[in-house]
Amino acid sequence: xxxxxxxxxxxxxxxxxxxxxxxxxxxxxxxxxxxxxxxxxxxxxxxxxxxxxxxxxxxxxxxxxxxxxxxxxxxxxxxxxxxxxxxxxxxxxxxxxxxxxxxxxxxxxxxxxxxxxxxxxxxxxxxxxxxxxxxxxxxxxxxxxxxxxxxxxxxxxxxxxxxxxxxxxxxxxxxxxxxxxxxxxxxxxxxxxxxxxxxxxxxxxxxxxxxxxxxxxxxxxxxxxxxxxxxxxxxxxxxxxxxxxxxxxxxxxxxxxxxxxxxxxxxxxxxxxxxxxxxxxxxxxxxxxxxxxxxxxxxxxxxxxxxxxxxxxxxxxxxxxxxxxxxxxxxxxxxxxxxxxxxxxxxxxxxxxxxx
Length: 356
Known about the structure:
The chain is built from four helices and eight strands, in the order H-E-E-E-E-E-E-E-E-H-H-H. It has helices spanning about 1-10, 100-135, 150-240, 245-355, and strands at about 10-20, 30, 40-45, 50-55, 60-65, 75, 80-85, 90-95. Strands 1, 2, 3, 4, 5, 6, 7 and 8 form an eight-stranded antiparallel beta sheet that branches. Helix 3 runs antiparallel to helix 4.
């Protein structure tokens, strides 16, 4: 059912946020619905003239909310907002990375809410108009008679065939559009994920580079201190009892061992950062591939739009040809009726002559 709705809906806005739901027991605490930031999107269903907020956590829908005019999105902090869904009997909360993302989502929520209100008002006005027409329309007990000649039967058959062809062509166009939109949604979600990972890796890389410079300075200082301590130990061993006591030698030896252990740990951290840098390059390559696939999908979408325009033009031409054919058939029927009437008059005249 969810996939069926997704096929006939179109995305109109997407953002990234951490999703929460209110604790159903306490109605106070927030329960995380996702471990990481996920894509939250507004979808529009043209068939039902309805708007929905959808967010997927893997293959599971963690938000599936139909927007109604009675809903209100409330900003509770600079980066957090919430709204209540009476149908699901819950309250959703969204945590954004920036205040600007929260503002954009809030404005889009208000816009969609107003659109849902206008759609409901139009639907109510349409129902009232249909009710009035039903009350005012006359009721017929029987269908009007249908004059049937060979011409009208052929016309009816051709009209039904053309309607079936047009309906199948429209279904094919809808299927093409739905497949293109689903591929674009998947690629947009993948691109959002890669961009999020890329930003985190860039921040970690900058921090690591800064730490590497600092650790290099500390390493040089520790190496100088180690050399100085080694010289002192060698000098103590050379002079024997003339220098400091054995206790000072032990302290210097212990300090030297601690510095060597610290140097080893710093070397391991530098190696780990170099590995992370290689992973960052791999993520950059994956992002470039995703961007390339997205561009290919855009080209495919433009090709589909061009094919759809050509198909619509062909449909329009077919409708014009059918209307022209219907007009010609109608004229032939009228001429045939006149000929039949003339033949009938001629037959009556011949009958009268024979009677005389």
